[in-house]
């Protein structure tokens, strides 16, 4: 079974000139050429055209598309790659739609939507680490929980977070020890704050894994430069770590 260049162009929504251009580039050869010079395309050629158009819609250049197709000898593997690319594109569009919706809501409510946390999601930057430590469910449910919040609810969460950070900074400046009552009260508050995030060990009530989670985060606070910036200074982040580790130790 073969179709003429005009039939394929019409069904694919492209021009015959485009298909001839793809032929000139070696990107899409017709399956046969008639004595009259007409190009014909069989199902294999049409499937390749479909892949070309999908990759083009994803923004790849023709040179990049050629490279992808040349690397894809296995048709099933190539189709799986297409699915992956389309899912990534869907996620990108979902994020853009979400950003526009939040901009609309910000105009309506008068809330400043410029905070990074409102734009990139709750735990998106740490996806790989969250999945590795606590599983895909922990990441996805936390992600959905965050994106399910209204802009006002996200701002309120950010405000509570800022207040918690300020409490840690005040406790450190006061010169108390990580094991002192004030620091341990903030540590308990910090753990309750973490427990609001669904599908985490704290939210699930898994005591052993909760202790592991808090210890892991405590060490991250002191080791990751981003968290040192969050708490204002490496010394404060280390204070938070020591207080949280002591808090978990007292769980027994």
Automatic annotation (TrEMBL):
Q: Which residues form the HTH merR-type domain?
A: 1-71
Q: Which residues form a coiled coil?
A: 76-103
Q: Does Signal show up as a keyword for this record?
A: no
- List keywords of the entry alphabetically: Coiled coil, DNA-binding
Q: Does the keyword Transferase apply?
A: no
Query: What PROSITE patterns would the database entry show?
Result: HTH_MERR_2 (PS50937)
CDD domains for this protein: HTH_TipAL-Mta
Q: Which InterPro entries match?
A: DNA-bd_dom_put_sf, MerR-type_HTH_dom, MerR_fam, TipA-like_antibiotic-bd, TipAS_dom
Instruction: Report the protein name in the record.
Output: MerR family transcriptional regulator
């Amino acid at each position: 079974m073969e179709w003429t260049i005009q039939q394929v162009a019409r069904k694919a929504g492209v021009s015959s000139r485009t298909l001839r251009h793809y032929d000139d580039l070696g990107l899409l050869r017709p399956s046969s050429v008639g004595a009259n010079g007409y190009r014909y395309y069989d199902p294999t050629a049409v499937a390749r055209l479909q892949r070309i158009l999908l990759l083009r819609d994803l923004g790849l250049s023709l040179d990049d598309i050629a490279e992808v197709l040349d690397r894809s000898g296995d048709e099933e593997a190539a189709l799986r790659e297409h699915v992956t690319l389309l899912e990534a594109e869907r996620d990108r569009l979902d994020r853009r739609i979400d950003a526009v919706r939040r901009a609309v809501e910000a105009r309506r409510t008068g809330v400043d939507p410029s905070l990074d946390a409102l734009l990139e999601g709750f735990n998106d930057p740490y996806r790989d680490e969250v999945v590795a430590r606590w599983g895909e469910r922990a990441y996805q449910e936390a992600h959905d929980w965050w994106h399910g919040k209204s802009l006002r609810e996200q701002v309120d969460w950010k405000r509570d977070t800022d207040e918690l950070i300020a409490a840690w900074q005040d406790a450190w400046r006061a010169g108390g020890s990580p094991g002192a009552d004030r620091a341990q009260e903030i540590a308990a508050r910090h753990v309750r704050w973490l427990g609001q995030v669904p599908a985490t060990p704290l939210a699930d009530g898994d005591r052993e894994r909760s202790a592991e989670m808090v210890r892991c985060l405590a060490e991250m606070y002191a080791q990751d430069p981003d968290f040192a910036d969050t708490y204002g200074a490496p010394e404060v982040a280390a204070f938070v770590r020591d207080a949280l580790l002591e808090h978990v130790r007292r769980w027994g």
